[in-house]
Every structure is written in C-alpha cells, then in structure tokens.
Amino acid sequence: MIRILSVDDHPVVREGIAALIGRQSDMELVAEASNGREAVEQFRIHRPDVTLMDLQMPEMSGIDALSAIRGEFPAARIVVLTSYAGDVQVSRALRSGARGYLLKDMLRKELLETIRAVHAGQKRMSSESAAEIAEHASDDSLTPRETDVLRLISAGNANKEIAKQLGLTEETVKHHVKNILPKLGANDRTHAVTIALRRGIIAL
Q: If you write DSSP's letter for every residue of 141-191 in order, what string do you get?
C-alpha cells in the first residue's frame, strides 16, 4: 500500500483527493493537514510514502513545510499540488526537494499516476509547468533587490516610498525598475507586476 499524507487548506480539495484515493486498492490516505505546520507534525507521526503538498497556505507555506520535512527526512517523497504554473514557483519547489509538481485542475487526470510514479522513485511535472520552465530557461533572473522593488510596486508604492522603505535613493529605485522591465519583457510597471505574479516571482 502507498501511504499518503494530503496537505491543503481547502477542505473541498482534501475531500476530492480522499475520494480519489479511497477508490484505489494500492493506496491509503493515512493523514491530512490544513497548513504547513500541521504537515510537518503529521509527517513526523505517520512517515507517509508520498505527501501531497499545497503551496499557498496560512501559518507556514508549502515550500517552507517541504524544506522542513526534507531537512529531517531527506528521502521524503513530496508532490506539490498548486493552482500556479509559474516557472519560478516550480523551480523553487524542485530546488526544495519536490519530486512532483501538479496543477490542481489536472488532479482527476494525473494525480493517481503521479503518486505511483513518485512512489516508484520517478519525478513528475505537469506539461504546463515544464513548458513555463523551458520558456524562461535563458532569461536573466531578477536580483533579490529587484524582487524587493517589484514587491513594493505591486503593493502600490511610488518610487519615492520604495526608496524610503528600502533605504535607497529614488534614482537607484528608478535604475532597478529600468532593469526589471527588459528582464521580464514588460512594457511598464503594471505589466511587470502581472508577469511576476503569473510566474511566481512575487505573491500577493
């Protein structure tokens, strides 16, 4: 039996996963969690074969929980389930040790096959996520400071406020914005924020 831990802050998603798994003769849902902190606790108790991990959760994110679990249990097999196909999100999850990355709208089609593949030692990723990574593989990535500037732009701050919050001159902020736009292929600040949200560079 493949023993599974399901982690998601939406009860409806967990119910759907439980129903799918409940119909399989080779799988058993051993525990559920509604946030990252609970996920770490439940993993310690049950030591599941495969963990299904949502990314956006209260208290502790899926990435942080993934890192914490893999830090304690390096052999843990974790599949990320998310609504986001953004290449940066995917790369971050894979770097943290995820063995699979599946979009929630593909659960009915691909979840069971992905669980079995990951349990067998393979890695699995949705085709949309793979395409996103391939599309941006040669892009210049934003520096941490540029990401900070973009995050503050997304919160509606003008250059003057951004400069004040980051302890920079307004001229330096303008320089960062000037660098951000071509790196993201954006026409303006608003377009840059839209792209960054879609790719998972920043989150609201």
A: PPPHHHHHHHHHHHTT--HHHHHHHHT--HHHHHHHHHHHHHHHT-SSHHH
pLDDT score at 93: 83
Q: pTM to 2 decimals?
A: 0.70
3-state secondary structure (DSSP) of residue 137: coil
Average confidence (pLDDT) per 10 residues, the chain, 204 residues: 96 94 96 96 97 89 92 95 72 85 83 94 78 61 89 94 94 93 90 86 77
Backbone angles phi, psi at 54, to 5 degrees: -75, 155
For 37-105, give the DSSP string: HHHHHHHHHH--SEEEEESS-SSS-HHHHHHHHHHH-TT--EEEEES---HHHHHHHHHTT-SEEEEGG
